[in-house]
Design a protein that fits this description.
Catalytic activity: 2 GTP = 3',3'-c-di-GMP + 2 diphosphate
EC number: 2.7.7.65
Distance between the termini: 81 Å
CATH class of the largest domain: Mainly Alpha
Largest sheet: 5 strands, mixed
Transmembrane segments: 6-26, 38-56, 68-88, 95-113, 119-142, 149-169, 189-211
Mean pLDDT: 91
Organism: Simplicispira hankyongi
Helix content: 55-70%
Protein name: diguanylate cyclase
Strand content: 5-15%
Radius of gyration: 30 Å
CATH architecture of the largest domain: Up-down Bundle
Number of domains: 2
Bound molecules: guanosine-5'-triphosphate
Order of helices and strands: HHHHHHHHEHHEEHEHE
Number of strands: 5
CATH topology of the largest domain: Rhopdopsin 7-helix transmembrane proteins
């Protein structure tokens, strides 16, 4: 079987690193600053590209020195990828540990380049070091708990490359001497091919992870209220329609709860609009804490909020309303009171609009009766 020329493979890796470095660099520039880690992910391919130059191009430096630097830069690229992953998930890099370990590896490589030249030992050291970096990236990603496609793709790429590295390490340690990097053997082509693929797939994985995060952030912005963090009007109404459809299909009742803060205009007028905003945020936090996971809570408009209680009839919704009112009066400086109107789905003829109307009417009834209470309709 004809083996691929190692120089061509290295050049291919360099070209891919160039393209992916540019893509990630542009993303770093134009994506929201909340997407962390892109800088390190963009640096990794740039470093791999420079490594390619040291390996493949004859330069003014001695060949052995070029190999030493090339190996170091390849390792550094994977370290930067690891740091990018940590930053992306909001974890600081352990720089002290990284710098010490990297310096040690470079010293060992220098030893087996100059005083005690051994290509075999250099291969073993670099391979083992990259395997350690891959393992810690893998463990970190696993512990991050994220299981979406881009993370899975990066994990699979790291795991496969790790397998190749371990095979290489084992084979390099089990024979007295191995061929040179530029020997056109099938085994060498396999290792270099795996490296090129790893460079490409890890960079693509980084692109996908960042893009997925931007999509999630945009989705959140489109469905949530900035001030209170609750669902916005459109999103909570969408949930109501979904629940209504479910009730039509399965015949299970659900309840809606309209909540309006009492005398909120007076709060604004007395303490200022900003204080009013803080009261709204505090109200949202307390209410969220009083609800179950399956309940949906959204800002209907101004100081009026809507709660959707799936699978819940009025009798079960009323204690929830009381729980919310209790949660709002705990002695906190931002405490307030609220009037609540509750209604439940009444059967196939009932609509979300009709339910909203009834919940609103019940809430106004609560206001008329003196506020800070719940009425059902
Ligand atoms: N600070 C702040 N105020 C808001 C916001 N949205 C609406 N408001 C204010 O909420 C007040 C609502 O006042 P009203 O509708 O008269 O109701 P109220 O004073 O709560 O009186 P009752 O509902 O009858 O108890 C208005 O002054 C609005 O300007 C907001 O996002 N932040």
């Amino acid at each position: 079987m004809n083996s691929l020329d190692p120089r061509s493979l290295i050049a291919m890796g360099g070209f891919m690193a160039l393209v992916m470095g540019l893509v990630l660099g542009f993303m770093r520039r134009y994506y929201p600053p909340s997407i962390l880690g892109l800088g390190y992910w963009a640096l990794a391919p740039a470093v791999w590209l420079i490594a390619t130059v040291f390996f493949a191009a004859p330069g003014p430096w001695p060949q052995e020195m070029g190999r030493w630097l090339g190996n170091g830069l390849i390792l550094l690229g994977f370290v930067l990828f690891h740091v990018g992953c940590r930053c992306f998930f909001g974890q600081p890099a352990k720089w002290r540990r990284i710098v010490v370990a990297f310096a040690l590896v470079m010293l060992c490589l220098a030893w087996f380049t100059g005083p005690e030249p051994s290509y075999r030992m250099r291969v073993a050291i670099v391979t083992a070091a990259i395997a350690v970096v891959h393992s810690s990236t893998l463990v970190f990603l696993w512990l991050s708990g994220n299981r979406n496609f881009p993370v899975r793709m990066v994990q699979v790429t790291l795991a496969l490359h790790l397998c190749v590295l371990l095979v290489r390490l084992q084979s390099v340690l089990s024979v007295p001497e191995v061929g040179d990097l530029m020997d056109a053997s099938t085994v060498q082509s396999f290792y270099l091919g795996a490296y090129v693929l790893a460079v490409l797939l890890l960079s693509i994985g980084a692109v996908l992870m960042a893009t997925d995060r931007v999509r999630t952030e945009l989705e959140h912005m489109a469905t949530h209220d900035v001030l209170t963090g609750t669902l916005n009007r459109r999103a909570i109404l969408d949930f109501c329609e979904d629940e209504h459809e479910r009730s039509l299909r399965y015949g299970q009742a659900f309840s809606l709860m309209m909540i309006d803060l009492d005398h909120f205009k007076a709060i604004n007028d007395t303490h200022g609009h900003q204080h009013g905003d803080r009261v709204l945020a505090h109200f949202a936090e307390c209410t969220r804490a009083a609800l179950r996971r399956a309940d949906r809570f959204g800002r209907y408009g101004g100081e009026e909020f809507l709660v959707l209680l799936p699978n819940t009839a009025t009798e079960a919704a009323l204690p929830v309303a009381e729980r919310i009112r209790t949660a709002l009066t705990t002695g906190h400086a931002l405490d307030c009171t609220a009037s609540i109107g509750v209604t439940q789905w009444r059967g196939p003829e009932d609509t979300v609009d009709a339910m909203l109307g009834r919940a609103d009417a019940a809430m106004y009834q609560a206001k008329e009766r003196g506020r800070n209470q719940t009425c059902a309709a």
